[in-house]
Automatic annotation (TrEMBL):
Residues 19-110 form the Chorismate mutase domain. It comes from Saccharopolyspora elongata. Keywords: Isomerase. One of its GO terms (biological process) is chorismate metabolic process. SUPFAM superfamilies: Chorismate mutase II. This is Chorismate mutase. One of its GO terms (molecular function) is chorismate mutase activity. It holds the Pfam family CM_2. InterPro entries: Chorismate_II_sf, CM_dom_sf, CM_II_prokaryot. NCBIfam families: PRK07857.1. It is an enzyme of class 5 (isomerase). PROSITE patterns: CHORISMATE_MUT_2 (PS51168). Its EC number is 5.4.99.5.
Amino acid sequence: MSHGGNVKTSPAIVIEEPANDKADVSVVRQRIDEIDQRIIGLIHTRKVMSQQVQRTRIDAGGQRVEPIREAAITKNYCAPFGEAGSALAAALLRICRGQHATQLPDKGGR
């Protein structure tokens, strides 16, 4: 659906900006809801992939969590979003490993 405005792109989402500032709020909110659903789907996909990595690491005798990797992820979110990016990364990392803490026990207390 084109509103005749500028189109901005990010790595995974194309966002059409309204042609003027008087866009119908309900239309914009609907678009936001659609984007939120896509984000939720991507988080679910990330969670499954994270579980695969955790399982592989544990099966190889390693730790479930790799602090250096998590620090790099946090840095990636801080770059565009600052302090809020740090909180976003922390929440994302908790989501992707939280449930798995009981499903994927570390070997040898690691």
